[in-house]
Write a structure and sequence with these properties.
heterodimer; A: alpha+beta; Immunoglobulin-like; 5-stranded mixed β-sheet; 3-stranded mixed β-sheet; 14 strands; 34% helix; elongated; B: mainly alpha; Cytochrome C Oxidase, Chain A; two-stranded antiparallel ribbon; 18 helices; 2 strands; 63% helix; 1% strand
């Protein structure tokens, strides 16, 4: 019931219907699942009720006056000529001001509360916004992944938000973005450093990802589960497809996930189709942008240069901004023509891949567990 | 339309012969009559209203259900960008300008605006800027980076799309700046004898505040647009962090303009409502001074709240606190206005004409937008709300259910004055109710969609979000609004089939424009009125006893103005003469714009046209 009335202004009657179809979508700002989202909700609820009260008072007066003072046939059209009333004016200036003071005090304290850097057992994560996917870096654990943010429950996560920047690669330092390419890195073909906004409504408010700046956000989940998020700042053609999920796990599960992610990729057995695919991967266009931990070219480890790190691709559930499940068919479609799958995709295939290459590459990618 | 007789000698002082047609196409192109220019503004704005509305309908078709396939991402981005640009710069602003142009001289007892040719120039430049921006659809793609044009997206994306945005808005900005200066000078300098500042109608006060807001805010966006244009076209780095620029600079420049702009859009409607309510309540506006001062206060504070559009940008807790509090403060004068409007209808004798319905609808719906606005000032709540459909709901309650309702009220109210014909009241009321139902069906559920996780400006959404039902309701609402607009068009067309028989004062109104015939003669007033009080015309018709009881004055209002036409259509009154030069000067600007985008020689040609227009203008006497 609370959620219904909370949404009521102007559509009171409609809101009743809302209860019937209120989604359990894991992207609902009215359904906070952690202390930071809860603080916002706790602040918003009383403000909503104050606004609702003022709404009903004003609309009530409007309707009442409209009925009470409507012209009736035969009544002389000579209403009393009231020019104003200074006492009333002062009253309805001061009263709202006092209400707003009452709203402002908890507002300001919550602003500072949310801006505080968490202390204690804190997980540091750097999230990098790309057109149109999210890179997720764990600098302390030396993990780079994409579109899925794994966190332990009950612990604050200090998210540093970075824009991709030209040539952004490797694992950056904790809590700081590294705009610009690392020294000596080749210039990237990917110029996707635009503004994004990181938003997981059930765990925190949103925070913009701004090129040239490091913004921070704290989030925390109380219970294990999957919480969905989405880029909230318009960022070009496939803005609508820039989604992600936060996977909250128990500490044990999280630790296990970390260990698995830290492992190097295992090369497929020689002679298999996957091995052919790995060969294509290492000798083709792929390594211009993508890296896989544990593989080398000319004795050098691969560095990601604008594309997602693919080390444990199959451990993720989704790609393309977490809007497509990772399946054989989807990977094939993507490799056949990325722009057909995602409007404006930065993944340029030149020349296009042959069906044999696609089969081999997909076979290889599906070994990356 | 009757002409002002000018003795027939042909003057060949300038480059071109003085235009002499008083009817037909060329008379409209060369007119400098503020009333005809007002009608041109209104017609142009209404045309763009239909275009922007069709774009909105396409957007709603696309979003009616999850995984919509009606519009491709690139077309969708063009449509939502153009919808916003159109409705703000090509509809609400010029529709307000239409009322300003038509009414300011009539309401202050003047014969025209201070600079009539400049007025024509503003009008044509606005039209050409609009057509210029829309020509982008045929020239490789329309603006697609949002009406807010955030850098670096607007400066790095391929294509000329956002060049049309920056150059087009620069042109529209010139038109608005010129018009702002013109109208401010008119209000300050050309009031009839006796019309002191505090005898001006509230609409005129709000118009004055808006002109100052325009004059001070447009230079800021002009700087931003030039920087954006230079980044894009000439490779400068104002917003490029890799070269030491800052994308957040654009946001500050844009919103330092963009928030006063919100008040530029809403204050005219507030002025219109403040004129309509007293007439149909048959009571003076409650707390005239307080309404005026709160309008001025909104104007000033409106420059101090811009960063509430940027709470999630990462400005830090100090800035977020300051702008949260200033945003709460601006709610206070806004509330004062609402309470004064309620005070106006309190104990009145209310006649629910169509204009009155729209005015009351404005109040009822604007309150929703105002209250949701206060929830944005609660900064942490805005961390959730910003860039979601909750925001879309908020500003459409302010700008559609508010400003557009006020402007429709104004159209019904002044239609008989402007065209000499009444709109059909019964049809008007039907239109009002359909429009009100449509507006609330469209924008009410958006609050829910936003809070349940639907971001703005997404071309589609996944069924897993469970947002399909409300989105369908919103789409149905949008088409309901479209039906109401069609009804209005029908009403307007039908009015021109009826005889031109509107009386001078059909509503028993209070302000000077109702003392002259409908439509007014080109010279407005046979004799410039002498003003003795606020609502002077009302006081000529009605006296007040000590207790505030209304007593009609016998033969008040000095009878039917038509029969009072002793001076024979204003014979001997010198009015500014029509001129070709404003439209010529305005015509050069889009050429310069194409030059900036395509070939430099077009810019040179455009500059020559502008200079030729200004040169001829300078050597042409204003009146002969």
């Amino acid at each position: 019931m609370r959620r219904i009335t909370r949404l009521a202004p102007g559509v009171g009657a409609l809101a009743v219907v809302a209860a019937a179809c209120a989604p359990n979508n894991h992207q609902d700002s009215l359904n906070p699942q952690g202390p930071y989202a809860q603080k916002i909700d706790t602040l918003f609820t009383p403000v909503f009720w104050i606004a609702a009260a003022i709404f009903f008072i004003v609309e009530g007066m409007l309707v009442l006056f409209a009925i009470r003072y409507r012209h009736r046939k035969g009544r002389p059209q000579t209403p009393p000529q009231i020019h104003g009333n200074s006492r009333l004016e002062i009253g309805w200036t001061i009263l709202p001001a006092l209400i707003l003071v009452g709203v402002a005090i908890p507002t300001v304290s919550t602003i500072y509360d949310l801006a505080r850097t968490p202390t204690g057992n804190v997980l540091n994560v750097n999230v990098v916004g790309h057109q149109w996917w999210w890179e997720v870096d764990y600098p302390d654990q030396q993990i780079v992944t994409a579109n899925e943010l794994h966190i332990p429950v009950g612990e604050p996560v200090y998210v540093s938000l970075c824009a991709a920047g030209v040539g952004y690669g490797g694992v950056p330092a904790p809590n700081e973005c590294q705009p610009g390419p690392p020294k000596g890195a080749p210039p990237s073909a990917v110029g996707d450093d635009v503004i994004h906004s990181f938003w997981v409504p059930e765990l925190a408010g949103k925070q913009d990802v701004v090129p040239g700046r490091t913004n921070h956000l704290v989030l925390q989940a109380d219970r294990p589960g999957t919480y969905t998020g989405q880029c909230a700042e318009f960022c070009g053609l496939s803005h609508a497809y820039m989604r992600f999920k936060v996977v909250a796990q128990t500490r044990e599960d999280f630790d296990a996930w970390v260990r698995a992610q830290q492992a190097d990729a295992v090369a497929p057995p020689a002679g298999s189709l996957a091995a052919t695919g790995m060969n294509d991967f290492l000798n083709g266009q792929c390594i211009a942008c993508h890296a896989i931990r544990g593989l080398q070219v000319n004795g050098q480890p691969l560095t990601a240069n604008g594309g997602p790190n693919l080390t444990h691709l199959m451990s993720r559930s989704c790609f393309r901004g977490c809007t497509m499940p990772i399946t054989r068919a989807n990977l094939e479609a993507w490799l056949r023509d990325p722009q057909a799958v995602e409007a404006g995709s930065w993944m340029q295939l030149n020349p296009k891949l042959s069906q044999d290459q696609i089969d081999a590459l997909v076979a290889f990618l599906m070994t990356l567990r | 339309m009757a002409s002002v007789s000018v003795p027939g000698e042909t003057v060949r002082g300038g480059l071109l012969r003085r235009p002499r047609s008083t009817a037909g196409f060329w008379s409209w192109v060369t007119t400098v009559d503020h009333k005809r220019i007002g009608i041109l503004y209104g017609a142009t704005a209404f045309f763009f209203f239909l275009v922007g509305g069709v774009e909105a309908l396409f957007i709603r078709l696309q979003l009616a259900q999850p995984d919509g396939k009606i519009l491709s991402p690139s077309t969708y981005n063009e449509f939502f960008t153009m919808h916003g640009l159109t409705m703000i710069f090509l509809v609400v602003m010029p529709l307000s300008a239409a009322f300003f142009n038509y009414l300011i001289p009539l309401m202050i007892g003047a014969r025209d605006v201070a600079f009539p040719r400049l007025n024509a120039f503003s009008c044509w430049l606005f039209l050409f800027a609009g057509l210029f921006i829309y020509s982008s659809f045929a020239l490789g793609g329309a603006p697609n980076g949002g009406w807010f044009g955030y850098a670096p997206l607007s400066t790095v994306e391929p294509g000329n799309n956002m060049l049309f945005y920056s150059t087009g808005l620069l042109m529209a900005g010139i038109a608005s700046t010129v018009s702002a200066v013109n109208l401010a000078v008119t209000i300050i300098n050309m009031r009839a004898p006796g019309m002191t500042m505090f005898r001006m109608p509230v609409f005129i006060w709000m118009a004055l505040v808006v002109q100052f807001l325009l004059a001070f805010s447009l230079p800021i966006i002009t700087v931003g647009l030039f920087e954006s244009l230079f980044d894009r076209r000439f490779g400068t780095h104002f917003f490029d962090p890799a070269a030491g620029g800052d994308p957040v600079l654009w946001q500050h420049l844009f919103w330092l303009f963009g928030h006063p702009e919100v008040y530029i859009l809403i204050l005219p409607a507030m002025g219109i409502v403040s004129e309509i309510l007293p007439v149909f309540a048959r009571k003076p506006l409650f707390g005239y001074q307080f309404v005026v001062f709160s309008g001025i206060a909104i104007g000033f504070i409106g420059f101090g709240v811009w960063a509430h559009h940027m709470f999630a940008t990462g400005l830090g807790p100090v800035a977020n606190t300051a702008f949260g509090i200033s945003t709460m403060i601006i709610a206070i004068p806004t509330g004062v206005k609402i309470f004064n409007w309620l005070g106006t209808i309190w104990r009145g004798d209310l006649r629910f004409t169509t204009p009155m319905l729209f005015a009351l609808g404005f109040i009822a719906q604007f309150v929703v937008g105002g209250l949701s606005g206060v929830t944005h000032a609660v900064v942490p709540a805005d961390y959730q709300q910003t860039d979601t459909y909750y925001i879309v709901a908020h500003f459409h309650y302010v700008l559609f259910a508010g400003a557009i309702f006020g402007l429709f009220g104004g159209m019904y109210y002044w239609w008989p004055k402007i065209f000499g014909r009444m709109l059909n009241e019964r049809v008007g009321k039907v239109q009002f109710w359909i429009m009100a139902v449509g507006a609330n069906l469209t924008f009410g559920p958006m609050h829910i969609l936003g809070l349940e996780g639907m971001p703005r400006r997404i071309q589609t959404y996944t069924p897993a979000l469970g947002l399909g039902v409300w989105n369908l309701v919103v789409t149905i609402g949008a088409f309901t609004i479209a039906v109401s607009v069609l009804i209005f068009i029908g009403n307007a067309v039908a009015s021109f089939r009826r005889p031109k028989d509107a009386p001078a004062d059909p509503w028993d109104a209070r302000t000077l424009e109702w003392t002259v015939p409908s439509p007014p003669p080109p010279h407005n007033f046979d004799e410039i009125p002498v003003v003795h009080a606020l609502d002077d015309f009302w006081h000529r018709k009605y006296a007040e006893t000590e207790e505030g009881t209304l007593v009609p004055v016998p033969a008040g209002g000095s009878g039917d103005p038509r029969s009072d036409d002793a001076h024979g259509s204003g014979h001997g009154i010198h009015l500014p003469s029509p001129s070709y030069y404003p439209v010529i000067a305005a015509l050069g600007f889009p050429l310069i714009g194409y030059g900036v985008i395509f070939h430099w020689w077009m810019a040179v040609a455009g500059a020559v046209v502008v200079l030729a227009g200004l040169y001829g203008w300078a050597f042409e006497p204003a009146a002969e």
